[in-house]
Amino acid sequence: MKSATSTSPVIGTSPRRVEGARPYNVPMESPPEPYVVLRQSALMLNCADLEPALHDIRMALDPSAADGVPAHLNLLYPFTTRLSVEQDDQLNQVLRDFGRFQLEFSTTAWFGTDSVYLPPTDPVILNNLVTRIRDLFPDHPAFGAVPERAIPHVTIGKRAPLEALKAAEVRVLKHLPIVQRCTTVELWSGPPPGTGAWRRHRTYALGS
């Protein structure tokens, strides 16, 4: 009697390769990396009490407003979103210990002729706050990335025609003085201004 032909593969031989298939034991290639925009970040005071006076103006004259960032005062910028649990806890404790405070804005000021802003009447408390934060993060600059403009300020408008900035200044002056109640510090991040939306990552309480 004729024995049946076996259909099992012979040990020691490779299974038949399907045409066009990936070779066996060769790692699959990773998909191509999408275009990644280098992200920026900032640790800031959200100046909600200034928003009614500044919102429409900032939407027209401040690129960060179009990116979704509210009226704000940068404390450390650029900052980072890659905090360890220990760093996050330390920052949280420093801000709780510092407590709540108020800022008054009673006048406007300029950086050259391309940026108009609101300076706090008394910046001492902000300098004290930033000093304590920078004890934890000494590598991150206070109040902005441009050294000659690294003072406490809330931008009204920038990189716009001078006449538009002057008109905005006149409008804002009519609302002053304004008192900003500072109860939280926020961590925001996003791509370079004008290239995409920013989002809030973390909110830290000032005081308990």
Automatic annotation (TrEMBL):
**Pfam families annotated for this entry?**
2_5_RNA_ligase2
List keywords of the entry alphabetically.
Ligase
MF term (GO), any: ligase activity
Residue span of region Disordered: 1-26
Would I find Secreted among this entry's keywords? no
Q: Which InterPro entries match?
A: Cyclic_Pdiesterase (IPR009097)
User: Which regions are flagged for Polar residues bias?
Assistant: 1-11
Q: Which Gene3D superfamilies match?
A: Cyclic phosphodiesterase
Q: Which SUPFAM superfamilies match?
A: LigT-like
User: Know the name of this protein?
Assistant: 2'-5' RNA ligase family protein
Q: Which organism is it from?
A: Arachnia propionica
